[in-house]
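Table S2 (continued). Query chain:
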Amino acid sequence: SIRDVLASDYFALRGYDRNLVLLGQLVDVFRQVLDLTQKLYEGGGASATDVAQARLQLQNGVTQITDERLKRSQLEHAMATLVGEPASSFSIAPGKSFVISMPNIDVGMPSILLQRRPDIASAERQVVAANAEIGVARAAFFPVFGLNVGAGLESQNISNWMTAPSRLWSVGPSVALPLFDGGQRQSVTDRAHAALDGAAANYRQTVLKAYQEVEDNLSAMRELNHELKSAGEADAAARDTLDQADHRYQGGIASYLEDVTARSVALQSDLELTDIQVRYVTASVQLIKALGGDWQTGAKDQTDMASVGKSSQ
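Corresponding output:
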């Protein structure tokens, strides 16, 4: 749905905002590294290759910023289309911070939640409708009589009955009747059974697809949760390394190049952590979509859905 796409796009947009801030800081560090390396080269403390690598690192950072801005702009335009606004008059101010409350997965989610999905509800009702059609088709085999006080027995097929062979009266008109309509009623019944088989197959496939989507996003959230923990630990380690480098540099023990290098590693670690956070939240949005709504459903809602399921059977 549009809401699901908008939610995913919004989190991705905020991820770009965070990346642009970090990349801006990273490019500043790369610029300092290039300046320092150039001076070391002029003083004989670095090679021409070191200068070229520092310049390449800086240009790659600038290119990445340009690419992130382009992606953010295109995503903003896509969101404008979703809400029915011209891209030229639609804008979302860059976020100043990227703080997202990570949702917890309810491990006790009942499968009945899937009944809220429109595609499953629609497929289920198609099965019910097709099943009802079989009853209608079977009823067409039974002759419809009408009693009229003045005219006696009436029926739309009365002429067939009156001219039918004697075998008709031994097996019953409901059995022989298809012989007189060229098998049309039997054809209707066959089509009804075929429609039921098709509806049932579609319902089964829809449910299986829904379960797959739920499992895919549950698996994604589980794995990304592990990645978040390891990336968080790596980020904390990078920050510790930066703090130590700052202290060493301020104490005259470490060089400025060591300090800015540690700062570069810390910023790149932040970028990786932001990427995983966006992917985790996006997976949670997709899980909500796969379930047809939030997984935190109360007992009353479950009871209501159970009653709906029984009434449609």
